[in-house]
Amino acid sequence: AMDHLESFIAECDRRTELAKKRLAETQEEISAEVSAKAEKVHELNEEIGKLLAKAEQLGAEGNVDESQKILMEVEKVRAKKKEAEEEYRNSMPASSFQQQKLRVCEVCSAYLGLHDNDRRLADHFGGKLHLGFIQIREKLDQLRKTVAEKQEKRNQDRLRRREEREREERLSRRSGSRTRDRRRSRSRDRRRRRSRSTSRERRKSSRSRSRDRHRRHRSRSRSHSRGHRRASRDRSAKYK
């Protein structure tokens, strides 16, 4: 819906810019000072038109008192407009003043005249075309705000999910690291047990070989001692 309304408003704004360019090419060139005074008259015209349209709407709704208050404000703006027109008339030749100075409505791209009467202004600013464009532009602003809020929420959700994935990945890496550490620890323990077992076997084997050597040495010693005693007895018997 936002894209559709943006396209519709973009087309209206394009027509507005083309109309401004066309007016700049066809209307008589005036100085910046005179242009500012003409702009002031246009602004007061718009204010009068909007107030009259509002007064008519209130009157149609039966709110006569509020409608009368709006009409009193209109009279005040009319007085300001009269003064602005006098300043504008005195700033340029009479022949040029009679030329119709047009302006393009920024809302609906319709043409507005510098010398339009109150009825013409009220019909424009209270008309369906102008009011319809106001509603469209207001709705477009609401949709833009809604879309921006939803986009922000999606971005936040996406960021939260990414943070959750990263946290899960960190936890998974930590869990895997602890598992690998436990495996390495068990492997070291097994190597140590095997090493201790091998050392014990070696010590046992060494002690066994030492005992065997000691037994053999003692056996040879006893055998040598018995042979020595026997030889001694033989020599003693021989001399006797």
UniProtKB/TrEMBL annotation:
Residues 9-87 form a coiled coil. Belongs to the Luc7 family. This is LUC7-like (S. cerevisiae). One of its GO terms (cellular component) is U1 snRNP. GO terms for molecular function: mRNA binding. The keyword Amino-acid biosynthesis does not apply. Residues 147-172 have a biased composition (Basic and acidic residues). It holds the Pfam family LUC7. The lineage of its organism: Eukaryota, Metazoa, Chordata, Craniata, Vertebrata. Keywords: Coiled coil, mRNA processing, mRNA splicing. Residues 147-240 are annotated as: Disordered. Residues 173-232 have a biased composition (Basic residues). InterPro entries: Luc7-rel. One of its GO terms (biological process) is mRNA splice site recognition. It comes from the Eukaryota. The gene is A8MYV2. It comes from Neovison vison (American mink).
